[in-house]
Write a structure and sequence with these properties.
single chain; about 55 residues; about 85% helix; mainly alpha; 2 helices
Length: about 55
């Protein structure tokens, strides 16, 4: 099992990746609003996971 520190860093990395994916999609000529919404939901879930692990 990984330590919380490693988990948090992994989640933070994924959070940054999702932010970039959202930005990339938003810059497309015809952005897919459903994809952006899905990515934002994932990003929020990861943010909640980071907060939960930080409290542990």
């Amino acid at each position: 099992m990984m330590t919380s520190g490693v988990d948090i860093e992994t989640l933070r990395s994924r959070h940054r990746e999702l932010e970039q994916e959202i930005d990339d999609e938003a810059r497309r000529p015809l952005p897919d609003s459903m994809r952006i919404a899905e990515l934002k939901r994932l990003k929020l879930r990861i943010k909640d996971d980071i907060a939960r692990l930080s409290r542990s």
